[in-house]
Amino acid sequence: MRTKQPMHKRFQRGLVKRIKNTGLFIKRLWSHKQGKVGLILVSFLILVAIFAPIIAPYNPYDVSERTTKGLAPSAKHLLGTTINTGQDIFSMLVYGTRVSLIVGVTSGVCIAFVGSVFGVMAGYLGGFVDTLIMRIVDIMLVIPTLPLVIVLTNVLGRDFWIIILIFVALGWTGLARTIRSLVLVLKNSNYVKAAELAGASRWHVMIRHILPGTSHLVIMSTALSSAGIMVAEAGLSFLGLGDPTAISWGKMLADAQSGGALLFGAWWWILAPGIGIFLAVFSFMRLGIVMEEIANPRMKQTSSVYKIFKSLDGSYIEDVFNSMDDDQKLGIPETARQGGKTHGTHLEA
Amino acid sequence: MKYTYVIKRILYSLFVFAVVITLNFFIPRIGVDDPAERYYPPQGNMSEIEYEIIKQVTRQQYGFHVSTGQQYMNYLKGLFQGDLGTSFRPGSPAVIDLILERLPWTLVLSVSTMLIGVTIGILFGVLAAVKRGRWQDTMLLNASTIMVALPAFFIALILSFYLGFELEIFPAYTDSTMVSGFTWTWEGIRRVAQNAALPVLSMVVGSIISYAQGTRNAVIAVTNEDFVLTARAKGLKQSTIRYKHILRNSMLPIVTSLGMSISGLIGGQVVIEQVFNWNGMGTLFLEANNSNDYPLMMGIMLLLSGFTIFAILVTDLVYVLLDPRVTVGDKR
Known about the structure:
The structure holds two protein chains of two kinds.
Chain A: H1 7-31, H2 33-50, H3 52-55, H4 89-125, H5 127-142, H6 145-156, H7 160-187, H8 190-197, H9 202-213, H10 215-238, H11 249-258, H12 261-264, H13 267-295, H14 301-306, H15 315-323, H16 326-329, H17 334-338
Chain B: H1 2-26, H2 35-39, H3 48-62, H4 68-80, H5 95-130, H6 135-149, H7 152-166, H8 177-180, H9 186-223, H10 226-233, H11 238-276, H12 281-290, H13 294-322
């Protein structure tokens, strides 16, 4: 056993290591073709969100900066103005990035945290905790999500943070289930058994041995659920049920529809927010997929890409995940398995 | 052995349903002491005494004058008799009647979306799986990435703009006389089809791709199974293996997932119905939300959840009947 170094020194070393690792990670993302696309797009969106007041020529929140209604795109108004209020559409588009990114990323990170904590607890502790968490997951699975979100916003209010809270409260279940089934495999692996035999406490094993083993799923899910929440938020705002004070892409689309963009042929008013949503979701998804590939290089490239699609609430990931065998769950490529290696981690399906 | 499992599954479904019912009862009561306040929020120009009288009437009308426990019992009693409550609308219509009136119109959209999506999706999925790694496969992958990032309501807006307003091929909004003037004639059915074209079209693209992706994965998973290898080793024809061994076995998960997906489809259809002003359950739900009509909202939620529970139960039981490998005590 190593002698313990003083606390601050260990902390310092850990921090340096972490920063170095992060740098390495970004470097590897950069050298990946798809990763580069995702990285550039995501940083672009983040920059736009931060510097929105500088980039946007007008402040769409400011009532005094409204002009003639229904202008077509021109040099002064890049994407024209809205038909009902006379706001500059380009500025609205730029400011809308803020809402989308904040709601998406905050919810994504929180979902990853809650989902992995519950998933690891359910999988590793088993027993009553497992039953309780999985029962909750089962129940949330059968209630239709969008209607439930609508009811909850009606009851709890439509404030920005409440909407994020609702998304997190409803979004963690898919990830928790997926992580639980991975933990069930990890739990029986030799290194975890060794740690247990060496007398490690349950919390130590969970945090130091199990959680790192699930990191590739957690990383991927952060990016993917961010993307999913962005779509959901756009849908909610489109129905007019988002934060009423915020300018978001979904709300722009709703305004475009109710303001007669379809009737007057103002296609730029519809296309602009739509492309905004598409870009944000697409780039976060790209990034998520590539990050998982890098975090888990043993995973076969194609399988890791394919298991993600369809629905972003995680249920589909889980279906595919459950259909994999134990070696695949751990990310051991087919070639190694055909080589006759046995890993001795057999569980009930 | 199998019967114990079946009974266990049914009991578990009932338990989940009971929890959902309880949630349904309590969600509108979050954060208020008196449900009457929720059902009838104070209006600006109302004096205190006036509001008190209105609350009193509301309590009497909706049975809030008894204790919460008693209200819950009454709610359960009503559910057993098929009574989902009374809507807050003028004339106090029964929730179940309002829902049943709209349900067929919603099903027109979701069932046709599902049928078209499944048929074309399975074809594409099998194609992609057979041509694994070739351009057909890559194209499906790229299409999936793009479709997930494009919200259905955006597609709906674009379609309504281009095909509805510009080219005027299909009606951009649902004709209001479609419902009231509906008759079981060719003319009536043709009009429904015409009005449903754009909503279905905007949902079907995503539906096709998700079923294709699901089929592709299922087919590939079966291809990697041992019995396929055995069949190859026996020297069977490639086409025999493909159609008799692989396809047949990979269809089971797809077909059983249909039941579950329809309820999700209805839930997600809310936005599409709103775009085209379609006279279905989605718009009913939004109308209920806008007028704080909680009995109606919770009634729709309960119906959808109940349907999902039922679909999952049937799926599980069908699996037990069809697949001898599903063992007793297997947890879902």
